[in-house]
Amino acid sequence: MTKTAGPAGASADWADSGFTGLAAEIERLRADYARRHLTDLATGVLAVQLGVSIAEAAAHLDALARATGLSPADLAADVVNSVAAPGDQPYVPSPVPPLQTRHQRRTAAAAEATDSVGDAARTLLEGALDPLGADSLWLWRSVASGSLSLAGHAGAGAAEAAAWRWISPACPEPFRTALDGSAPLWLESGPDEGCPLPGVRADAARALLPLRRQGEMVGLALVGWPGPTPFDASLRRAVTDLMGMAITVLDRPDSPMPDVPVLVDLLDALTRPAALLQTSEVSGAVIVEHVNGEAVAALGGALSAGDRHLSRVFPLAHQALGRLVQRARHSRRPQRAARLPATPRPEPHGAPAPLLDVRVLPAGDARYVLLWNTVTDSGLATGRAVSRLQSVATFQDSLTGGETVWSEQAYDMFGMGRDDAPVPLLALRGRIHRGDDGALTELLRSLMDGRTGAQSVLRIVRPDGSVRHVRVAAEPLLDGETVTGFVGVYQDESVIHRTELALSATFDSLTVVRDQAELRHRLALQLQQAIVPEAPAPQELPGGLVVAARYRPAAEEYQVGGDWYDVLPLPDGKLLVAVGDIAGHGIDAVTGMVALRNAQRALAFTGGPPGQLMGWLNEVTLRTGDGTSATAVCALYDPDARDLVWSSAGHLPLLLLRDGRARLLKTPEDILLGAVPSFRYQERRIALRPGDTLLLYTDGLIERRHDGLGVGLARLVAAVDELATGGHLGPLVDGLLGLAMGDTDDDTCIVAVGVR
């Protein structure tokens, strides 16, 4: 089951939607607010200097901008920087623009437009202090007890921030010197030994600056550098001026203090990339709360304040990571993935780096630890291969000049002595039965071309002529996109093979035991096929619609899942079209599917709109599903208005085929059913034209084990373009099933709705 998808390049409608667009819009609004704030300050300054009204001052500011050719924001920064005291001479443009002070003033205005002191500190650090070589900023606020309370920080970890949250009146010597002296304290090589200050290196330069407002001490700022730094006059002046501007940000609310410093310290101590994720209980959004140093290197740089959403940090892998988080949330157990799509890295950091050996671990309420590698861990890959089998012999091959290594059991399987050279997997063809050449070729193709794990049973011909049935399970070793070797296991299944033959021939009574388990699977399959027919005939429906639906069950009965579809004329003349996908497999998933499908049918007869129907169905899922979750699309078609209104609970986007071209429709990015109570689902509307075809489907159609969801959706769009048959729906849906774009062996539903 797949949550809401967001493929890169699959559809302009789809790519522009979601949290990425929302984050960009928030950043744009904040930048606009900062510009207006700075312009208002400059207008007030001119009004006082010229003794005119605000409107006249604003007109004068516009005239100056046109006369000087400066942007309004740059001119406003110059005006505000020119102020010494009310009553000074009116501002006169300087022939040499004060670029540094202008940039600092604009950065200060942007900081004043933020929501918290922490956001303001990040803005000041990234916009003004970083160009001066600084790497951290701490802002404390004076409180009534005489203590200093940390209001916000940037460039430091959560654990260090928790350690410096409070500074008592009996504060360390450097703090007391700065406060008592009422003047900045410049420490070019760090404080004296035994005088602690925030920072990784004791000898790193730091500047402590008292923050005063109208003569009253209101706080303290500490600016840190990565190492010893000489403070010349221009650097001291720039830092002092900037911190003087920063006093106003102390009026912002405090940043929330981290409550997981120990966990952050543990992540920072790891030698593999790691991140701390936090989920919103309301929206379900996943935020990257912290990344360690290895993750910073793997991602191509530190994260900025606006790049914390999972979709911004991992644009190609965030859908798969979101699913792992959801599974960890529901099961409270670690979730794994061998390989996720590469994460783009900005120049000059080089080629994209795939996420290998991915782990998502629950870490308390709404928090999860994400671990991954950039080079395959052979131990973990061996573990994945071993997990496919019960009793095994291990092997490891190198494709880069190394040797092949076998465990002792492998020599016995192949009938070889301990002194014989192990046989690499690529040279195994001379050791197997000729009838298994094709199976070995497919195994090697998966490893080398697909760069994914695989397994196969091969007949090994030993030197004495005897034959052993050996199951081979292998995983590729990857360095980026390059296969550097294989690790895997051999399992001798000869005894099992002979035993199964004997049992099937002489001990029929033992099948009763297996029948008890198979009966449960057969019941699930029959129940599912009764509710979701495998290949119904196209239906002519009122309102000039024709509908073709297909259901393909899972490849194995034990994988029977909870996919469903429904096409139902309603009493008010509208038509309900729906698809859904219950999480999990087996009879529990099928019975849950039946309950939700029937509930949706009953609710549709109320005449409610799709968003309301989906909200009610969410409450049904929460109250009757025992932790069940599902994705779904609920659409209502009005034949009189030729209008389709739909709502989505974390499902894949609808596809519209119009004039022979397919595109994905922009879908509400709402959460799946059964996640949170009282959730309000959005609606989308589109007018359908004669000749249009609308496609609804589940993820078994497109999802592949080692491809991003965006790749699968793009492949689907291309396939529909190719299979467009002038409105003939049967060949379209049959052709899509025949292409078998998904490889997860999951069940699949497709519903095609055509407008006459």
Kindly describe this structure.
This protein is an alpha+beta fold and about 750 residues long. Helices cover about 35% and strands about 25% of the residues. The protein has 22 helices and 27 strands. The chain has a 6-stranded antiparallel sheet, with helices on both faces. The longest helix has about 30 residues. The two termini are about 30 Å apart.
Question: Tell me about the biggest sheet?
Answer: 6 strands, antiparallel
Rg of Cα set: 33 Å
Q: Please give the count of helices.
A: 22
Q: Quick check: average pLDDT? A: 77
- Side-by-side strand order of the widest sheet: 3-2-1-6-5-4
- Note the quaternary state here: single chain
| N- to C-terminal distance | 32 Å
- Give the uncertain stretches in residue-range form: 1-23, 84-100, 502-514
Shape: globular
Helix content bin? 25-40%
Classify the beta-strand content into a percent band: 15-25%
Number of strands: 27
Keywords, please?
22 helices, 25% strand, single chain, disordered N terminus, six-stranded antiparallel β-sheet, alpha+beta, 756 residues, 36% helix
Chart the SSEs and their pairings.
Layout: H1 12-15, H2 19-50, H3 54-68, H4 72-81, H5 99-112, H6 117-129, E1 136-142, E2 148-154, H7 158-163, E3 166-167, H8 173-181, E4 185-187, E5 206-213, E6 216-224, H9 233-246, H10 261-269, E7 274-279, E8 286-291, H11 293-299, H12 310-313, H13 318-331, E9 335-343, E10 353-362, E11 367-373, H14 378-387, E12 393-398, E13 405-406, H15 408-414, H16 437-448, E14 454-461, E15 467-479, E16 482-492, H17 494-506, H18 511-531, E17 539-541, E18 545-552, E19 561-569, E20 575-585, H19 587-604, H20 610-624, E21 630-638, E22 643-649, E23 655-658, E24 661-664, E25 684-687, E26 693-697, H21 709-723, H22 729-739, E27 748-755
Antiparallel strand pairs: 1-2, 1-6, 2-3, 4-5, 5-6, 7-8, 7-11, 9-10, 10-11, 12-13, 12-16, 14-15, 15-16, 17-18, 18-27, 19-20, 20-21, 21-22, 22-25, 23-24, 23-26, 26-27
Helix pairs in contact: 2-3, 2-4, 2-5, 4-5, 5-6, 5-9, 18-19, 19-20, 21-22
